[in-house]
Amino acid sequence: MNSHHSSSGYPVMPSRSELVHTSATTIANNDDSNANQRVWNFCAAALILRPPITHPSEVLMTTGLKPLTDAEAREVELVFRLTKSHLGFVPNSMRTMARQPAILSSFTLMVGNILGQPSDAKSPIWLGIRLVIKNVIWSLRNMRSKDRLPLALKNLVAHVTSGAAGCRYCQAHTIGEARDQGVPIEKLEAVWEFDRSDLFDEAEKSALRFALAAGSHPNGVTADHFADLRKHYTEDQIVELGATIALFGFLNRWNDTFATTLEPESAAFANQHLSASGWEIGKHG
């Protein structure tokens, strides 16, 4: 496959037709000697398993999680009330996120801090204070939840989605964090071959396939990904995975936009254990 790079020199995801051609050629020739080529070959195999969904209504009906109604999301009534006071309605994205009150309230506070203007405030200040208090309560409960996903898995998810998005800075950080959480070096080095590696169980493979598709451009998540996830995770845990991916969407754009300099320790570890799969420091050096 021809090399694909953006104007900044970073790899970008090829089109679906190019992926199909590359995957077929790779299968026929068993050619994956080049490290960067091997990563794209893997992306191709992961993304062409299902024909593309093209009709927006089909996407809404067959993928994702159902937005919760007001009755189903009574616990976060305060968040919905504040949102309605500003927008006149509650976006379905927030209704989906409502399965995890701590994530929803933290997101709402972040949006307020980034976009909020005192002159535009339509709610009394005491409602905002109540939300901050609720956020603390929900966050403490969330941290203690027995259903909370392991940080090691979330770091691997963050690593794969950051790799698909092309953020070398976040790749280096997440692989180091995964090591600190006890993931063996052999497994870290095999992360870009997870779908054919015995080092990853089926639940991990499902989460990493989801992360790879979600971090790709355009987004490659389909109904099949959610069907696969539901075999291993609850809806609350799927929201947790999605929030991890979305958080690193923010961090990927932040660090690539500002060309954040990668710290020496992270750079050394990434060079040692990720270079075989095509990692390079790029603009972060």
Automatic annotation (TrEMBL):
What InterPro entries does the entry give? Answer: AhpD-like, CMD-like
Pfam name, any one: CMD
Boundaries of every Carboxymuconolactone decarboxylase-like domain copy: 145-211
Tell me one GO molecular function of this protein.
peroxiredoxin activity
Q: What is this protein called?
A: Probable fusion protein
